Amino acid sequence: MTEAYVTLATTDGYGVGALVLGHSLLSHGTTRQLCILVTPGVSEQVRSALSQVYHNVVLVDVMDSGDSAHLALLERPELGITFTKLHCWTLTQYTKCVFLDADTLALQNTDELFTQPELSAACDVGWPDCFNSGMFVFVPSQETYEQLLDFAKTKGSFDGGDQGLLNSFFPNWHRLSFVYNMVATACYTYLPAFKEFGRNVKLVHFLGSTKPWHGESAAQPGSAYGSFVGAWWTIYRELVRPSMP
Ligand code: UDP
Ligand code: MN
User: Fold this and answer.
1) Domain count within the chain
2) % of the chain exceeding 90 in pLDDT
3) 179, 203 in Cβ contact below 8 A?
4) Which UniProt keywords are present, listed alphabetically (predicted)?
């Protein structure tokens, strides 16, 4: 029975995000494996750094895979990264997984997530009847993978990405606490709640167009948001940058 955290990177930027994420999970003493799906868009240099942190670096190339994902992609080219993400269901060497976006950061150990069923996730702040697909518990299965591809091909995604697709496919998802996927901006958009519950946050998500690896300027001590970006940069400076040739 092997369980794993799984993430995804198609570029060096997201690859660096995944390096920081991996270190954050290890620093909080996870007992689970770390696995990452990478595409040929990630450089050799970043892939080699990833293989120092992740137990399993899986190269996924939907473009020349020749399987049903490639065929689905020909019909729905807009779902390129989504189809790459769906590959996580093919990781059947694991009995259960937690998917994490590469723009997330563990602040505490989250291994208790592996006791949750498929599909467990936390609410999306934009539409809380939907789950946010930056963190979800799933069970790898070739059958589910084929069903997901078929669903994507025939029904598409209402938001053009994986979140719309997965919400339509798993309408009876199980709701987890927001502390497992707190959008970083919540610490100022709902300050009183952050003051009350913020100390419980276990995983922070830098959702949106500005990612921590775009620059250190947002890392301002004195604001909670700035301290999350600062925590990301501390790991980057101390553990990631020195490992890059
Ligand atoms: N991703 C990627 N390359 C991209 C876009 C996304 O590898 O060009 C992966 C990465 O793991 C990322 C996830 O897909 O964290 C979801 O995208 P993102 O986090 O940018 O979306 P947001 O959470 O801001 O909605
Ligand atoms: Mn994200």
Assistant:
1) 1
2) 85
3) yes
4) Cytoplasm, Glycogen biosynthesis, Glycoprotein, Manganese, Metal-binding, Transferase
CATH of the domain at 98: 3.90.550.10
Pairing relation of β-strands 96-100 and 56-59? unpaired
Name every protein residue with a CB atom under 6 angstroms from any ligand 1 atom. Answer: 7-11, 14, 81, 101-103, 134, 207-208
Backbone φ and ψ for 146, nearest 5 degrees, come out as -65, -40
Residue 214 forms part of a structural domain? no
> CA-CA distance, 19 to 16, in Å (whole number)?
5
Does the pTM of the predicted model rise above 0.90?
yes
CA distance readout (Å), 64 to 9, 40, 57, 84, 136: 17, 11, 18, 12, 27
Domain boundaries, position 24: 3-177
Tell me which amino acid residue 14 is.
Answer: Y
- Residue 206 resides in a domain: no
Instruction: Identify which of 5, 7, 8, 54 to mutate to test ligand 1's pocket (most ligand atoms within 8 A of the CB).
Output: 8
Residue 115 belongs to a domain = yes
Half-sphere exposure of 11 (CA within 13 A, CB side): 5
